[in-house]
Amino acid sequence: MKQRNNSNCPICYSLDIFGDRWTLLIVRDMVANHKQYYREFLGSDEGISTNILADRLKNLVEHGLVTKEDDPENRSQSVYHPTEKALALGPVLEAIMDWGLKYGPESLTPPPGWQAATAAS
């Protein structure tokens, strides 16, 4: 994701890191749904493509929101974990969710596992 280096705005900085559709959905899946494997993120209902997923996970690792390590049981795959920095996005995700529930179509529902995730943060 391209970053704007000419702005001192904290909103601009934040959006450079997690302001696209996919990044916050990956963080949501880690925090609320406890996903930690690449294939688990690919299985999300929104249907992220493999190249976008790889790019967003790399970006999250580079910015310290996610750690990546080899799976001790299967060295050919990686395990991703949210850091404190990612977990601090819980209230942001909750606010976005609340806004969507208030102003979006009545058919919207909170993501599975969301209540348990917000109670822990």
UniProtKB/TrEMBL annotation:
<protein>
    <submittedName>
        <fullName>DNA-binding HxlR family transcriptional regulator</fullName>
    </submittedName>
</protein>
<dbReference type="Pfam" id="PF01638">
    <property type="entry name" value="HxlR"/>
</dbReference>
<dbReference type="GO" id="GO:0003677">
    <property type="term" value="F:DNA binding"/>
</dbReference>
<keyword id="KW-0805">Transcription regulation</keyword>
<keyword id="KW-0804">Transcription</keyword>
<dbReference type="InterPro" id="IPR002577">
    <property type="entry name" value="HTH_HxlR"/>
</dbReference>
<dbReference type="InterPro" id="IPR036390">
    <property type="entry name" value="WH_DNA-bd_sf"/>
</dbReference>
<feature type="domain" description="HTH hxlR-type">
    <location>
        <begin position="9"/>
        <end position="108"/>
    </location>
</feature>
<dbReference type="InterPro" id="IPR036388">
    <property type="entry name" value="WH-like_DNA-bd_sf"/>
</dbReference>
<keyword id="KW-0238">DNA-binding</keyword>
